[in-house]
Amino acid sequence: MRTLAKSALLVIWTTFISLQGNLAIAAGTQDAPKSPVVKELSLDRGRTAVLVMDYENDILGMVPEKAQAPLLDRASAILKGAREAHLPIIYVVVRFRNGYPEVSRQNKRFNTLKESGRLQEGTPGAEIHARVAPQPGDIVVTKRRVGAFSTTDLESILRANHITTLVMLGISTSGVVLSTVRWAADMDYQLVVISDACADFDDEVHRVLTEKVFPGQATVLTTQAFIQALGSSPQ
Q1: What are 90-134's pLDDT values in tens digits?
Q2: In sequence order, which ranges of the chain are alpha helices (DSSP H)?
Q3: Ranges under pLDDT 50 in the chain
Q4: What per-residue confidence (pLDDT) applies to 85?
Q5: How far apart are CA 131 and CA 94, in angstroms?
């Protein structure tokens, strides 16, 4: 009986030690930094459009001054590459009529804009920045809310042109980009977010969204990686 008891204790002890070892390995795996997964991007140019969202003077003016020029440099490079690849370019802007009749008193964010007088139609602040301005043949969609699909005819334009992939850059990351990613993902578009051509008024929010949130529904790339992908994509 004593021999059986000792054997049972030995089995329990061995199992306990083994379990501890497995838990330690699991903990080590969780704590170790994960290497970023880089996906190879293949674009069907005939079904891909670039969305340039809220690159307006009033909105760019809220980005720290030192970040504005590099942001515009990257956006310009993306547009150049997209035009050379003959991708449709769609600008999305937020603008309001004189007196802001579209703004409900219950809308906290837009009431702040209304009080500031920004983004009224026909004012210089509501215009797209000159460095990334539309060219003939580009499309401009005007919205009255945050996301690119809300209050616009963007969906009709995309469907009419058989677009299934959206490449996005915009300001802000937590505003128009987040809202558009969520909406477009629910409609089963393939999504690409160009992280360094997006900007937010909070750097940490931008980091969390581009590194933790967006990868669940979109391919997140840098400007350089996107331009390289254009060169290798099928015609």
Answers
A1: 999 999 999 999 999 999 989 998 999 999 999 999 999 999 999
A2: 2-31, 57-60, 65-84, 108-116, 154-160, 178-186, 203-208, 223-232
A3: 1-38
A4: 95
A5: 18
* pLDDT at residue 180, rounded to an integer: 98
State the CATH number of the domain containing residue 177.
Answer: 3.40.50.850
219, part of any domain: yes
Polymer length of the chain: 235
Residue 197: closest CA among 83, 95, 77: 77
Domain membership of residue 25 (yes or no) is no
Say if residues 151 and 97 touch (Cβ distance below 8 Å).
no
Letter for the amino acid at 81?
G
With tokens 């021999």, the residue in question is: 3
Number of domains within the chain = 1
Question: Please, which residues bridge with residue 68 across strands?
Answer: none
Q: What is the mean pLDDT of the chain?
A: 86
What pLDDT sits at residue 196?
98
Residue 24 located in a structural domain: no
Q: What was the pLDDT predicted at 27?
A: 36
How far is the CA of 8 from the CAs of 4, 20, 22, 173, 231, in angstroms? 6, 18, 21, 60, 66
Q: Write down the pLDDT at residue 162.
A: 98
* Residue 152, domain extent: 45-232
Residue 180: phi, psi to the nearest 5? -75, -40
Cα–chain center distance at 132: 18
